[in-house]
Amino acid sequence: MDGRGLAKRVLDGAAAKVRTIRDATGVTPALATVIVGDDPASHTYVRMKRRRCEDAGMTSVRVELPATSSTDEVVGRVRALGDDPGVHGILVQHPVPAPLDKRAVFEAIPLGKDVDGVTSATLGRVILGMPAFVPCTPRGIMMLLDEYAVELDGIHAVVIGRSPILGRPMASLLINRHATVTLCHSRTRNLPYIVRHADVLIAAVGKPRFVKGDWLRNGAVVIDAGYNEGPIGDVDFDAAREVCSMITPVPGGVGPMTIATLIDQTADAAATQLGVEL
User: Fold this and answer.
1) Which of 54, 130, 140, 256 could cross-link with 3 by S-S, CB 3.0 to 4.6 Å?
2) What is the DSSP secondary-structure string of 67-122?
């Protein structure tokens, strides 16, 4: 399942939205990225997101804070960005280093600028099927499933991973599309048995090649949302591809869709804030 090709089309669509907004208002949509500390991987991700912003004609605002920052200091910067009419979307780069209260930082993002889908208000709206900026990786996965015409109505989907920005909203999106969902995690018993009964598997466990090929049923659709050093996914790709009907590669599957979704949702946020109909 080619995430790069679909992501390019999503980014092209976002660029068209940016041009429409600029022509109507003279304003260029802007995404602010807040990064705390010196984690090399985080800085790499931020550079990638900045490049995609520029590709779409969007402004990228980078806010760097030292790892010694207090929760109050980071919350204050996020709230200032929320009050800034020149900023239309806010992303707080993960991970937020300890001992910062990452939930307090996320909750400082206004709902209308929560383009990464990290606030509790967003999660509640996703669960209820209400309009919201869906967490980017789950939304990107849903777009991939639709792109490849994967039937979700009535199927059994297994999600491995229960994080509030990936596993839980992913399960909710699938439920809202009438799938029967089993949400698994580190304490789930008999995991291979559960996976073997999945029509669609979403792996987001954060462990390289954790899901083995002989766990999968013949013809399953496998979405590997993991990214480990190598780069290696959470699924043993070579073994899985002998069994499944479709699978996302790492890299080139879910990752490009996550960034493309972020840019697209920022363009939508800007249009709403500026009163532009797309």
Assistant:
1) 256
2) TT--HHHHHHHHHHHHH-TT--EEEEPSPPPTTS-HHHHHHTS-GGG-TT--SHHH
Domain limits for position 198:
136-255
CATH code of the domain in which 86 resides:
3.40.50.10860
Burial grade of 127 (CB within 10 A; 0-12, 13-18, 19 or more): middle
Q: Just list the catalytic residues.
A: 49, 93, 116
Q: Shortest CA distance to 63 belongs to which of 51, 50, 53? A: 50
The answer for residues whose C-beta is within 8 angstroms of residue 75's C-beta and 6 or more apart is 104, 105, 108
Burial class of 242 by CB neighbour count within 10 A (0 to 12, 13 to 18, 19+)? exposed
DSSP for residue 217? P
- Closest to 250 measured CA to CA, from 6, 11, 3: 3
Mean pLDDT in consecutive groups of 10 residues from the start of the chain, 278 residues: 97 98 98 92 85 95 95 98 98 92 97 97 96 97 98 98 96 98 96 98 96 98 94 97 97 96 98 97
Tell me whether residue 164 is in a domain: yes
Residues 170 and 73 both lie in one domain? no
